[in-house]
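Tokens in:
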């Protein structure tokens, strides 16, 4: 009940094609209230991807995770750590592609946290 295999996709970011991911995601809560979510790629095909009409490039999630730890003394605060080690594949494996991918990756976590804050505030 704490583990699932999922398929997800991201939109294309010029000059990169859209990416897809098949991952096994496991979550658990530790005794101190810390919530941990761990993700790794699964080497299986997701046949439903064809229904989206896109030519996806498979991204390998070597290891990814989120650690959400309550801040002692303030129930309104959470220490949030995100870890992502991926191989995006395709054109991102070229020197120029790696430069562009690294630039894109600097904005992704900030956008993710802002969206999370918006959800929590709503």
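Residues out:
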């Amino acid at each position: 009940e704490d583990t699932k295999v999922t398929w997800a996709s991201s939109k294309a970011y010029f000059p990169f094609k859209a990416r897809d991911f098949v991952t096994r995601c496991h979550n658990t809560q530790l005794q101190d209230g810390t919530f941990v979510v761990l993700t790794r790629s699964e080497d299986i095909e997701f046949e439903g991807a064809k229904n989206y009409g896109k030519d996806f490039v498979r991204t390998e999630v070597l290891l990814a995770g989120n650690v959400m730890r309550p801040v002692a003394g303030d129930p309104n605060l959470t220490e949030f750590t995100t870890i992502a080690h991926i191989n995006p594949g395709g054109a991102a494996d070229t020197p120029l592609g790696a430069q562009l991918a690294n630039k894109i990756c600097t904005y992704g976590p900030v956008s993710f946290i802002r969206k999370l804050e918006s959800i929590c505030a709503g």
